[in-house]
Write a structure and sequence with these properties.
There is one protein chain. With 132 residues, the protein is mostly helical. Helix content is 55%, strand content 6%. It contains 6 helices and 2 strands. β1 and β2 form a beta hairpin.
Length: 132
Amino acid sequence: MSGRRKTVRISEAEWHIMNVLWEECPKNLGIGLTLGEIVQNMPPEMNWTNTTIRTLIIRLADKGVVQIDKTTGVYKYKPALDKSQCVEEEINMFVARVFDNSPYQLVASLVRKEKFNEREKREIIDILNEIR
């Protein structure tokens, strides 16, 4: 067995929940957020019901992305994975699906669009020079 963790696919709706958890949990010392606190921190334009948010949280917990603390009487939810881990997995899945598993094709596509400002161009060149 390779010890590699199973790839987790987070839906677009679930990303909204995770962004709230990643943003707000550190502010309360990582204790976790109640359903009500998650609802309060959702973007107003989402206009989701508590039931919808709870369903998404349960799906995330089933995927191993959210931890649920049931010991306090009021359930507390917190991320089980860092945002950087989820972003990396999402990028890997995207590159595999769209660019035939070629990071080069992704980077080349972005560079050819030339939508970088001068600072970003310098930083990209610095990053490329670091990997030489």
